[in-house]
Amino acid sequence: MESLLAEATAFGNEDANASLEAKAQKALECPCIQNLRSGPCGSQFSAAFLCFLKSTAEEKGSDCVQPFVALQSCIQTNPNAFPKEVLENDEAETQEKPSEDYKIIPPRWAVEPTTSPKTKL
Amino acid sequence: MSPVVLIRGVAAVGDLHGDLLKSKQALRLAGLIDSQDRWSGGSSTLVQVGDVLDRGGQELKILYFLEKLKRQAVKVGGNVITMNGNHEIMNIDRNFFCVHPSGLDEFQNWAGWFSTGNNMKQLCDGLQKPKDLYDGIPSTFPGIKQQYMNGFRARIAALRPQGPIATRFLSKNLTVLVVGESVFVHGGILPEHVDYGLERINEDVRDWITGSRETVSSDLVRTRNSLLWLRKFSNETAEDCDCSLLEHALSTIPGARRMIMGHTIQRGGINGACNNRAIRIDVGMSQGCINGLPEVLEISEDSGLRILTSNPSDHQNRHDLLIPEQHGPREVEVQA
């Protein structure tokens, strides 16, 4: 997200004398985030994005919990908030063939009980 | 508002094991955080000796919390130093034997939002396509109950070398630390570790976690006598502490007078063995351990050792170390 913010902010920063408010508004117009501003959660995205850019809190954005939680809730209730083809995990094609010895050591409670009645460890 | 801070010094806290509430209680008891959970330790340095992971369901919350505290501390001249315990290495190694079920939930939830964030980035023109979080991780593991599969996959993705959580948090951990006369290590140090080089040990482990190094020696972090698993100096019965070996190890580190360790639960609370050359600070405070009373070790500038404890009853065998809590543990007012 840092580089995106940098790009959008740079877009809004052309006029160094503009107010934080104006800069944030300008940043919102950056074509780079137009996809995120559309769809059912677009307004929530814009609100969170604007809040962060305008934040003057010591820890920038720490006063934006509400709009970010609103964005989260929106995404939760709208699984298709953003264009589906992009949101789909294309795991299948990117995944390297896992090697045979790719094992984990599980905790006891996660192990499927064996069908053999003899094993009582 | 007059800021109240600890005497400039070092505070050390033991194994936290996924229990955020107990972690905060310990730090508050030591005056390191205020009622709003903000750093109030001024220029003190907090050392956490490892084992944040496993046995509880707030592992990520503790990692983020300590990171946030560090930023606050550094601003006022303090510091928070986090270290590797054997449980950090186990998780990086996909050894999930001590994971708590709620620890799968927390990581799965994290992974869901991390992936959503990645997906949103893909909608931004001009941004590099982020690598798939689960790249190379099998979708299923034989013999594991189906309902836990995604939890384990999330843990692997987060904690494997180069994983986002490993990189952001665990790669910042030290494996061995010397502050003044004190040597901090999760399990213990042997002369052969000193021979290998303390700086080199920290580098090896860090480089393995960030992925710039293929592997890290098991003699350093995985075997019984490694820095993270050793119990020779932390056995609960003080008589079982190998004092001559400890002296030998300490003598190989210039200026070192004591070793401060976690790893082995001390039911009686923080204590010293071998004339306080071995200080054992794992009190098993996590609910996933023995739900022990939080305690913090403080080392003041003149090297005095104190135990900050919430335990009202005294401990007979550690009078020389103990300072019980007295309405805000020995806080000192300073001018801002």
Architecture overview:
The complex is a heterodimer of chains A (121) and B (336). In chain A, 48% of the residues lie in helices and 0% in strands. Chain A is mainly α. Chain A has a domain of 83 residues: Orthogonal Bundle (Helix Hairpins), CATH 1.10.287.2900. Chain B has 336 residues and is α/β, with parallel strands linked by helices. Chain B is 31% helix and 15% strand. Chain B has ten helices and 13 strands. In chain B, helix 4 crosses helix 5. The radius of gyration of chain B is 20 Å and the shape is globular. Chain B starts with a strand and ends with a strand. Chains A and B meet through helix 1 and helix 3 of A and helix 4 of B.
Instruction: Please state how the strands of the largest beta sheet of chain B are arranged side by side.
Output: 4-3-2-10-11-12
What's the assembly state of these chains?
A: heterodimer
CATH topology of the largest domain in chain B: Purple Acid Phosphatase, chain A, domain 2
Mind summarizing the main beta sheet of chain A? none
Total number of beta strands of chain A? 0
Which shape of chain B, going by the Cα principal axes? globular
Helix residue percentage of chain B? 25-40%
Question: What is the 3D form of chain A?
Answer: elongated
**CATH architecture annotation name of the domain at 1-83 in chain A:** Orthogonal Bundle
Keywords (chain A): Disulfide bond, Mitochondrion, Oxidoreductase, Peroxisome, Protein transport, Redox-active center, Translocation, Transport
Protein name (chain A): Mitochondrial intermembrane space import and assembly protein 40 homolog
GO molecular function (chain A): protein-disulfide reductase activity
Organism (chain A): Cynara cardunculus var. scolymus (Globe artichoke)
